[in-house]
Amino acid sequence: MPKRPLLALALLPLLAAAGPDRAPKLIPGGIDQAEPDGNTIVLEDAGGLVVVDTGRHKEHRARILAYARERGLPIRYIVNTHWHLDHSGGNQELREAYPAAKIVTGRAVYGAIDGFLARNLERAKARYADPATPADQKASIALFLEAMDHRKDLLPDVPVTGTMKLGRLELHLADHAATAGDTWLYDSASDTLVSGDLVVLPVPYFDTACAEGWRRSLDTIAGHRFTALIPGHGPALSRAQFETYRIAFGRLVDCAESSAPARACIEGWQKDAAPFLTDPKDRDYAAQAIAYYLDNSLRAPGRQAALCGTAG
User: How many CB atoms lie within 10 A of CB 184?
Assistant: First the structure.
């Protein structure tokens, strides 16, 4: 994968419409270009805080803990939208500070720990021990190894198995989408939807994704009410902006499933997602990422069958 660019995150004014105690607190992701943090959302509910996604880097989770101290409230729940470590790697440190905090996430994390993450563990250990590995890569690997040493903090105390309530939040499960199971949330108090990596800018990440299941999940979200949407990476979106993203995503998948040359799929995304690609670096990154995903996922039938749960 090409390195991911940092994104300037703009918080839509409408997120504050519910009032200071009811509006979601957005802690933007993005610390370095190679391994950014996912966005974090913190909400106040029933005398405590609900933290949605915890990032990867110590600096990011320090900001979460600082906000909890500022509010003078305990973290009661940690909701992980999915198991990717840029969204769940901070669980352990937050639970050190708030041992009673319960992890709320889908059961797909069990398969990830036994499969995707386990396959990378020995390779990561070898790279970390190799004197030739650059220091910045070692720092990133160390975060992965730390998370795997505390993998119990990735597992759900409260599994998300379908639509359910968690205080003021409505939780939903998308099956075989960006991962084998993605949790998305709706907060009626602020009319805000939190999508996790079901919406990602400047380009969707297909490393663990079932393209058709992901498309279906976006159609489901489109049928739900919300005024603002917080993606897994990137700036907050209005409903109209989400619709632009949904249409661009569908056309990208259609192109990938056709015999069109890769260049047509890349240029199609750049055109359809143009409102989100105002920085030339984002356009270049999107081109590199789509080329990679076409070869390694979207046009790899066996890979997609495995990720969609349809392999024989």
Answer: 27
